[in-house]
């Protein structure tokens, strides 16, 4: 089975491959929560050992 042609490439029947708009979502503050959790964990382990 061959991969689909590139977007905008003309097909044999005259139609073109159309690209559907992708839905985007906000990533939020998960990165900062993870960084703070990692720092707190490191500080607690450092205090315990």
UniProtKB/TrEMBL annotation:
GO cellular component, one term: plasma membrane
Topology term for the membrane: Single-pass membrane protein
Keywords for this protein: Membrane, Transmembrane, Transmembrane helix
Protein name (record): Cysteine-rich transmembrane domain-containing protein
The keyword Transmembrane helix is assigned to this record: yes
Annotated compartments: Membrane
Domain of life: Eukaryota
Every Cysteine-rich transmembrane domain range: 13-49
Family statement drawn from the similarity comment of this UniProt entry: Belongs to the CYSTM1 family.
PANTHER family the UniProt entry points to: PROTEIN CYSTEINE-RICH TRANSMEMBRANE MODULE 9, RCG49325, ISOFORM CRA_A
Keyword NADP: no
């Amino acid at each position: 089975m061959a991969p689909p042609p590139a977007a905008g490439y003309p097909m044999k029947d005259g139609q073109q491959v159309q690209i559907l708009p992708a839905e985007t979502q906000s990533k939020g503050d998960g990165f900062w929560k993870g960084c703070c959790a990692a720092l707190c964990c490191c500080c607690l382990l450092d205090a315990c050992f």
